[in-house]
From TrEMBL:
One of its GO terms (molecular function) is L-methionine-(R)-S-oxide reductase activity. One of its GO terms (cellular component) is cytosol. It comes from Burkholderia sp. (strain CCGE1003). Transmembrane segments: none annotated. Residues 74-179 form the GAF domain. This is Sensor protein. Pfam families: GAF_2. Belongs to the free Met sulfoxide reductase family. SUPFAM superfamilies: GAF domain-like.
Amino acid sequence: MIGKVACFTLDNLFASFIAFNHGPSMFEVSSASHLPKAAHYEELVAQARALLADETDWIANAANFSSFVFHSLSDLNWAGFYFHDGRELVVGPFQGKPACVRIALGKGVCGTAAQTRKTQIVRDVHAFPGHIACDSASQSEIVVPLVAPDGTLIGVWDVDSPVLARFDEEDAKGMEALCAVFIEAALPRAS
């Protein structure tokens, strides 16, 4: 028997949040795509914060975060994590086709973001020197480095699109805000 199921939409997100903590539940992505891009990201940040709030397992949070973003934004064909293992980036939870498993720092868009610790917006992946093609459908990409408050590299958040020039500075700001929510949820909490 499955326990009580709670469905989250933007309208009942916070009211239903209590039910989320009392058994199996569903998180329904609220579509706010009619909003201006910045406002849409603000909505997504609030939803991501609620989704990750009380879960302490970072792998579970990474899996849900990947699915949440993948299903909340249009024109994506891959969204997921590469985590730094101390030497290289290793694929983590994601949505999309199977991915490259390991990426060296400084290689491709992900490795460049990790090495420089700067968000990479690539309007045309075929014009990026050393681009690593995991999905031939990808035309543009954005990668946000994940850095702990003490400066430790956690990994990168990688999102691909089959549309040229899908990502811009507003997406970078929005993705960085979403990643800040993930980092906050992923780091050990003080007791």
